[in-house]
Amino acid sequence: MRMGMRLLLGYFLIVAVAGWFVFSIFVQEVKPGVRRAMEGTLIDTATLLAELGKEDLLSGNAQEGRLAKAFTDLHYQPINASISGINKVRNEYHVYMTDAQGKVVFDSAGQAVGKDYSRWNDVWLTLRGKYGARSTLSDPDDADSTVMYVAAPVINNGKIIGVLSVGKANNTMTPVIKRSERRILWAGGALLGIALLIGGVMVWWINHSIGKLVRYADSVTLEQPVPLPDLGSSELRKLATALESMRVKLEGKKYIEHYVHALTHELKSPLAAIRGAAEILQENPAPEVAARFTGNILTQNARMQALVEKLLLQAKVESRLEVPLTAVSVNALFVALRETRGIQIARKGIELQCNETDLLVTGETELLEEALGNLLDNAIDFTPAGGVISLTAHAQDAQVFIRVTDSGSGIPDYALDRLFERFYSLARENGHKSSGLGLAFVREVARLHRGSIRLINLSPTGAEATLTLHRHFT
């Protein structure tokens, strides 16, 4: 099972257990809570009716008193109330009153007058000055037919002369209890769904961030490093930086060995040419011959110096993890390239087309100018006299695509996968090869700018290099 699914499952189980625990308590407390509230109302009602029924009890004919008349009138008076969607259409109280011996002298239902209720808890406790209440099944065969009775003493001159008891069936509160339970369960289900959604988003973000790190690690393994991913988290960012630092350190020894080997190989040819020229000069040749071989020595020396400088620049770029980024004008880069390569372009009779643009990119000016210069140098080398090279830029969303297009012969198929390797170079039209570091340098600059570089063949002829950078918004 993937780590993300494990995280989601663990998170969901924690939320589900916590939700079940909390909501089970709520549901378990709904019924007792409603009944406690009902009991409090019954106490208040019994106390009030006890005071009203005192005169009826003293008169000796409570069944014909004011309390009895009020209940009789109440039976004929309809009730039409809607309480939060619950309709109430009748009085649900059952009231009876006993004398000091517990004998029923008034019953709102008219069924218990004359009966001895002295042993019922509500009457028995109240006659002794205690709080009296009881629950009784109105139907012995129905466990849900309980009726709660709460009693209050009828007091005259400080003496208990009777008991007034008010009862209400518990099932009258069932709609309220069921509705509350439904609402709690719906709220619980919604909360669980929201928690699951949040957990899913969180796990997706973690998987997405880890996936970026995996792709980055895979690219390093394939020796095709991509820009260090922006993970949006300080902890994951530190991990990515640590991975990049580890990559640089692990590649250090192999990198140096490769460079030394390549540098030795590249220096063999100019050193051999210098040695041959020096040996001829030792023989004191004619002045015109000496001048020619002296020129050869200077040419090969310049070649070695250029190679060493490019190696140092490449090593400097590849050892950097980040560069200071500012707003860079693409048009200014094009102008600089036209000025620095103007002589080469004019010498070959090539037409350079640059589009005017006000686009800004986020980057480091010198590195971008050097990288685009390498792309333009390649285009000049492979474009025949009279050909056309174009520099264009356009934006799409938050990215800027800078393209260097030539009308040369294109890139051989066998070389497409190796163009960005260090020291890999194709022969120019004059038979010479470059250092093979130009495109490797461009790739490293793209990586430092969190961009990309792509080279493709055009139809029918020519090639196109696209450097993708981040747009700078003012």
Based on the model shown, name its key terms.
single chain; 474 residues; alpha+beta; Beta-Lactamase; Helix Hairpins; Heat Shock Protein 90; 3 domains; five-stranded antiparallel sheet; five-stranded mixed sheet; 10 helices; 53% helix; 18% strand; cell membrane
Please, could you describe this protein's structure?
This protein is of the alpha+beta class and 474 residues long. It folds into 3 domains: 3-178, Beta-Lactamase (2-Layer Sandwich), CATH 3.30.450.20; 252-321, Helix Hairpins (Orthogonal Bundle); 323-474, 2-Layer Sandwich (Heat Shock Protein 90), CATH 3.30.565.10. Helices cover 53% and strands 18% of the residues. It is built from 10 helices and 14 strands. A hairpin with a 4-residue loop joins strand 3 (93-99) and strand 4. The longest helix is centred in the first third of the chain and has 57 residues, at 3-59. The mean pLDDT is 79. Pfam families: HAMP (PF00672), HATPase_c (PF02518), HisKA (PF00512), sCache_3_2 (PF17203). Residues 262-473 form the Histidine kinase domain. It is a multi-pass membrane protein. It catalyses: ATP + protein L-histidine = ADP + protein N-phospho-L-histidine.
